[in-house]
Amino acid sequence: MKNKITTLFNIKYPIIQAGMIWTSGWRLASASSNSGILGLIGAGSMYPDVLREHIQKCKKATDKPFGVNVPMLYPNIEEVMNIIVEEGVKIVFTSAGNPNTWTSWLKDRNITVVHVVSSVKFALKAQEAGVDAVVAEGFEAGGHNGREETTTLTLIPMVKENLRIPLIAAGGIATGQAMLATMILGADGVQIGSRFVASYEASSHPNFKNLVVSSKEGDTHLTLKELAPVRLIKNKFYNELQELYKKGASVEELKTLLGKARAKRGMFEGDLEDGELEIGQISGLIHDIKSVKEIVEDLMNEFNEAKRSANNL
Question: pTM surpassing 0.90?
Answer without folding.
Answer: yes
